[in-house]
What does this fold into?
Amino acid sequence: MNFGDRFLLFLLSLVGLVLGVLLALLGAGVISVAWAASELAVQPWNMVCLVVGVVGALLSIRFLFYRSRRGAGGPAESVLLAGDHGQIRISYETLRQLANRRGSQLKGAESFDSRVRQGHDGILIACRMQVLPDIDIAALSREAQAAVKEYVERTAGVKVERVIVHVTEIAPNGHVGKAWSGA
Amino acid sequence: MADMEYELTERGSVHISDEVVQIIAGVATNEVDGVIGTSGSLAGGITESITGRKNMARGVKVQYDEAARSCTIDVWVQLRFGVSIPEVGYQIQEHVKSSVESMTGLRVNAVHVHVVGVAFQTEAERAQDADQIGAALPGEERSTGGIG
It folds into this structure.
């Protein structure tokens, strides 16, 4: 979601918040319905209502039919493969999910998250990893690089230029069962 | 999007609604092993939830070239974890192209496949995957995984 959409979503949230509070006050009897109707039907509040209503409706329609760039397959957010009968676009989100799945399987990795960017000669995968105590971090990092690179290249068929591993911290309590959320 | 219309016989023309091609392509896509489903807009998902009917045209876009009596198809798909994405992509292209061409007589110029995500098809698969992760790790060295 780009900055413009975030701003529009912020505006829609404000409109929703104001309308929600007003409705709650009306329902609670703090504001009289007759008073609200009489005030909102005259200048300048009728114009304010009209503008807020139209803007709110337009914003709602915008997000009701919103398709993120990944869904629309924008060139900046996907990797392109040439197929026999057309293109195959793999979104960065897909590659991120693959990297996260493989990274989460590593022994000693408490949590694993990644970001995908385009490099000069393939994609770059930046990983953030929280590790268990008493783990050889250098060895685990090398293993993560090799495993993620191999898995993404094999599964997605795209070239991985580099895997950057950032070990953020030692996990405070890592003695529980491992589960992967699929995110 | 305009519907496709072309002369077939001396007796008249054939008119193919864009939704017909979308549904054929959507069904063909979902028939390929490794495809979890097609991915459409939020509004389409809400409509499916309300009506309880799966919209097979969801996540499929068709562009017609009436002069050449052909079309270009875009499909947005979510695949199953573990499959080879290029391999499944090629299969989708083949199957969609052959289905549309055989059923409508239109020529398919290209089938563009957009992979928007990978997921587990069922909760059982997810649990099995988690078990595999757990089995690979001895006792105390298991971790909570997930995204931090």
